[in-house]
C-alpha cells in the first residue's frame, strides 16, 4: 500500500524519537505496540492518497476532538516535521472551534504553547539528549 | 482575514445550494444562521493559512468524530467541490480508524456511499431540480 | 428531599403524557422504568435548590451535548411546561455553541422546530388523542 | 493468536449473516472491510484470554457509549449467539447507567426491544429469507 | 443584543481576574482570545433572554459533559459571582448524574471542592495577590 | 435484587479501601456519596445475572470510553479482586481498540501500568499504610 521510495509515515512523524516512543508503547503492552506500528502506521497511515502533512493536520484535529491527550503533542511535532508551518497548525486547531467549541481548542493551544516553549529553550548538555515526557 | 481575490469558503463548499442551506439555517433561528455565516464561515473558515481542500478534509473528519451528523454530507461535497479526489476523501475518513475506532468510520462511509449514489442517478426532470434533504 | 406542597418534577415535565411515557420505559425494561422514575426523577430531579424551569433548561443543554436523543423533545416540552419562554429555550440552546460547536446545536434547533411545528397543527379529531412518537 | 480448534469470533457473532455483512462492508470500501475482518476480528477479537460471551457483552456496552449505532444490534445478537442469556444482556446494558447516564441506556434498550420483537414474528415465507437492514 | 445598563457577562464571570484571563488566552493565540471575547462572550453570552446565573449554571453542566476541563472552575466561580448559592451549584452538578453518569460528576465535585478549599484559606500577604493557576 | 449469601459488589471491588473511598465521596457531597453507594452499587451493580468479574471488566471498558478517569484504576483493581487475571484485563482493554481507537486505549494501559508498578513496590513501613490518591 506504500510507495517504496517514500519514507514511512512513522519515520517522519516520530523522527529521532521513534525508538523511545516505540519502546514506551511496547512496555505498556507488546501487542498494543505492534498493533500501533503495524496497523495504525504501516497500514492506515501509509495509504497513498494524502500527503503526510495533511494526514498530520487531520490527526491533530482528531486528537483535539478526543480532549487533547498526550498524543496531540506528538502529532503537532509530526505535522511540523512533515512540513506544516506553525500558522498551518494554528489554523487547523482553530478550525475545530465551529465543530467542537472553545474548551477543546483552548486545551489544544495549551499543548501547542508547551511544545513551542520547549523548543525555544537551549538543549540541555547532558548526554542523554532531550526527553519530553508524555509523548507518544 | 481574507484575500479579496479568493472566493469565500462558503461559496465553494455550498455551491449552488448556498441560498437553500442558508435559508434552512435561518428558519431554525435567524441568529444561529447569522453566527454560522459570519463567525464559522466568514471568520474562522476564511483564515488564510490552509487551502480549502485541506480545511474540508479536516471538517469531514471532525464530523466523523461527532457521529456523522447531516453536515458530514455537506462537507464531503464541499471537499469534492474544493478539489479533493474521491480517494483523498476515502483516505481522510480511513485515517479516523486509529483515532476513533471502526463504528464511527463505518457510519461515515455510509454517508459517502449515499452521496456518491445520488450523483450517479440521472437528475429528475421536474422543474425544481435536485434537492437533497438533510444537508446543511 | 422534596417539599410536599410542590408538584413532582415528573408531573410537570411529562404533563398528561406521563402514563404513556412511563409505560414505554417499563416496556423496555421494568427495572429501567423504575430507576428513571425513582432515582432520576423522584430523587435527583426533586432536589430543592433549583426551580424546575432552570433544571429543565439544564437538561435540554445536557441532551444537546449527548447529540440530541429523543429525550431532548421531552425536555424542551418540559421546560415550556415549567414556565420557560420560547426565547429562553432558544438562548439555552444557543449557549451550547461556544461549548459544543455548531453541529450539535443545529441538531437541537431541528428538534425545537419539530416540536413547535407539531403544536401549531390543529389536533387530530380521532379518538386516541395526540401521540408523538419518539418521546420519553 | 488463536486456538485452531475454536471457531473464529466472527463466525459465531455473525452466524449465517456473515457473507451479507462482509459484503456490505466491502461495498462501503474494500479496504475498510478487510481491516475490520483481518484486524478487528481476526487479530483483536480472537485474542485468547476472554471467552466470546464476555467479549460480546463488552462490545455491547462500548457501543452504548458510542450512542448505539447499528452495530449494537449485531453485537446483541452476537452476545446471544455466544451463549449469553437475555437477562445477561439486560444487566450488561443496565450496568451502563452509572457510567453513562440514562439516555444512552434507553436508546440501547430500544435496540434490544427491536431485536427481540423481530425474532418473535414468524419468518416471512418469501424465498430470500430474513434480512434485517442496518446490521453490521 | 445587550441591554446597555446591564454589566457585560464577562465582567461578572471573571471579576477582577478578567485582565489576567484575557491575557492568558491572547498569549495562546491572539485570534483565539478575540473570538472568545467577541463571539463567545459579547455575542452569545450577552443574549438577553436568560439571566446570568442561569447561563453560568448551564455553562457548568456543559463543562461537566466535556470532562471538567479547567474552564469548569472559572464558571463555578462565575455562577457564584452571578448570585448562585453553593447549594444551587451542587444541585446543578448533581442533575448531570442521570444524563452523564457518576464519573463525570465526581470529577466536577472535585473541582468544586478545590475551589471552595482555596477560598477558605487566608489570602497570602505577598505583593502579587492571589493567582489560581489553571483558570480561564 | 441480591442473593443474601453473596458478598456485596462494593465489598469485593473496594476491599480494605472501602471506608477511605466512601469517605472521600461523602466529603465531596454526602448525597453524591449516598447515590453512588445505594443506587450505583447496591441497586445496579448487585443485579444478579452477571458475575462480578464480568461486571468489572465491563466497568473498565466503559471508563476507557470516558477517557480513563481515576475510577479506572479502582475498577482495574476491582476486576483483579473479583478474580480476573492480568491477561483478562489486558484483553478487555485491547477490545476497546476497534471501538474507540488507540489514544483511549494507550491512556488505559498507562493506568494499568501504574497500578501494576505500585503493587510491585514493597509497602512503606509508615503507620498509615498505603494510600493511593486519585482512587474511587
TrEMBL record, chains A, B, C, D, E, F:
<dbReference type="InterPro" id="IPR029032">
    <property type="entry name" value="AhpD-like"/>
</dbReference>
<dbReference type="InterPro" id="IPR052512">
    <property type="entry name" value="4CMD/NDH-1_regulator"/>
</dbReference>
<dbReference type="Pfam" id="PF02627">
    <property type="entry name" value="CMD"/>
</dbReference>
<feature type="domain" description="Carboxymuconolactone decarboxylase-like">
    <location>
        <begin position="30"/>
        <end position="113"/>
    </location>
</feature>
<dbReference type="InterPro" id="IPR003779">
    <property type="entry name" value="CMD-like"/>
</dbReference>
<protein>
    <submittedName>
        <fullName>4-carboxymuconolactone decarboxylase</fullName>
    </submittedName>
</protein>
Amino acid at each position: 500500500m506504500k510507495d517504496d521510495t517514500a519514507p514511512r509515515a512513522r519515520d517522519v512523524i516520530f523522527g529521532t524519537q521513534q525508538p523511545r516512543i516505540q519502546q514506551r508503547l511496547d512496555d505498556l503492552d507488546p501487542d498494543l505496540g505492534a498493533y500501533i506500528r503495524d496497523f495504525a502506521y504501516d497500514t492506515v497511515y501509509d495509504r497513498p492518497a494524502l500527503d503526510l502533512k495533511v494526514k498530520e493536520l487531520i490527526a491533530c484535529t482528531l486528537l483535539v476532538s478526543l480532549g487533547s491527550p498526550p498524543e496531540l503533542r506528538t502529532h503537532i511535532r509530526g505535522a511540523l516535521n512533515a512540513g506544516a508551518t506553525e500558522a498551518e497548525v494554528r489554523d487547523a486547531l482553530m478550525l475545530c472551534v465551529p465543530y467542537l467549541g472553545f474548551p477543546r481548542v483552548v486545551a489544544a493551544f495549551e499543548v501547542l504553547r508547551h511544545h513551542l516553549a520547549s523548543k525555544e529553550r537551549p538543549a540541555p548538555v547532558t548526554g542523554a539528549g532531550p526527553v519530553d515526557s508524555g509523548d507518544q
